[in-house]
């Protein structure tokens, strides 16, 4: 379960490395910048959500959500 920006950053870094990608390669394939990838992997809490979702999709990471009133939506 992810509960912090740092948790998400660690996940992104782990998946990027598992795919054998450099930060620069991930930035290029996701249409973001190298600085953004670095900030995201380092858990910067103010990273833009739209770009973050794009990076997750590029890495094949599915984001699942849930609320107290309903089962997981994804």
TrEMBL record:
One of its GO terms (molecular function) is DNA binding. It comes from the Bacteria. Residues 12-44 form the HTH cro/C1-type domain. PROSITE patterns: HTH_CROC1 (PS50943). CDD domains: HTH_XRE. InterPro entries: Cro/C1-type_HTH, Lambda_DNA-bd_dom_sf, Tscrpt_reg_HipB-like. SMART domains: HTH_XRE. NCBIfam families: couple_hipB. This is Transcriptional regulator. It comes from Woeseia oceani.
């Amino acid at each position: 379960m992810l509960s912090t920006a740092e948790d998400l950053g660690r996940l992104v870094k782990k998946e990027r490395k598992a795919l054998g990608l450099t930060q620069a390669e991930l930035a290029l394939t996701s249409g973001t910048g190298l600085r953004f990838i670095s900030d995201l992997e380092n858990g910067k809490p103010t990273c833009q959500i739209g770009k973050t979702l794009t990076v997750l999709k590029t890495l094949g990471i599915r984001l699942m959500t849930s609320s107290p009133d309903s089962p997981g939506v994804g």
